[in-house]
Inverse folding.
């Protein structure tokens, strides 16, 4: 993916449309759409990265810096946690899985499982960045 697609995806994950992001950052309307054909200045890219709480590297390449990538152990832990939570919901250990007084359908449970996995992956990346013991070493 290119710069525009990466910005659009990062904005979507934060709950912003491109138009709203442009407005929040004080950019002209359709400015970010121009990223399909031009590369903006480094300070503009940094401003977007800071606002969306992602790295410039992610916006430029679509890849997280090495320190923020999940290992296979991380993925196994996340899968184990998701399965445990879903098992508790299906066993109705803490009561029935419901929303607004209605039991969740199997489709809703699948959607919830996918969103839970996404959330746990993001949390793991945030925690790796925040609690990295080597971040201040040179």
């Amino acid at each position: 993916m290119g710069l525009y697609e990466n910005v659009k995806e990062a904005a979507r994950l934060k709950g912003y449309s491109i138009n709203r992001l442009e407005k929040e950052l004080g950019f002209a309307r359709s400015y970010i759409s121009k990223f399909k054909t031009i590369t903006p200045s480094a300070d503009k890219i940094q401003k977007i990265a800071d606002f969306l709480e992602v790295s410039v590297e992610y916006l430029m390449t679509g890849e997280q810096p090495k320190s923020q990538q999940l290992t296979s152990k991380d993925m196994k832990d996340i899968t184990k946690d998701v399965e445990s939570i879903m098992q508790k919901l299906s066993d109705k250990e803490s009561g029935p899985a419901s929303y607004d007084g209605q039991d969740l359908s199997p489709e809703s449970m699948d959607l919830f499982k996918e969103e839970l996995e996404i959330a746990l992956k993001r949390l793991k990346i945030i925690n790796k960045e925040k609690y990295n013991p080597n971040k201040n070493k040179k």
Residues 64 and 73 are 17 Å apart (CA to CA). The mean pLDDT is 85. Helices lie at 3-13, 18-25, 42-52, 56-61, 72-90, 106-130.
